[in-house]
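Quick check before the chapter quiz. The format below is the same one you will see on the exam, so make sure you can read both the input and the output lines.
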Amino acid sequence: AVVLLYWLALCGVRAQFPRACSTLEALEAKRCCPSLSADPADACGARSGRGTCSAVRTDTRPWGGTYTLRNVDDRERWPTKFYTQTCTCFGKAALFHR
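Here is the expected output.
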């Protein structure tokens, strides 16, 4: 089991956001809607029906209990700390491939 876990760790890491969204421009714009082609209007593969760029919706209910990291924890209202617009995929389209 340990060898299997070690082998899986060497196979690579999958991130939540594509590399195209980790640029300074994308982070400053707070927009993770990469284009699948050279056409900027093809954000999220809109022209091929893969998805659309849309505003991120988050849970606005107040935190309960003894939560003391309000406005400090990056996980709060995730992912709006980094992006306010992301791709919403249609059907089975869930990965960014370029």
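If your answer matched, good. DSSP finds two helices and three strands in the chain.
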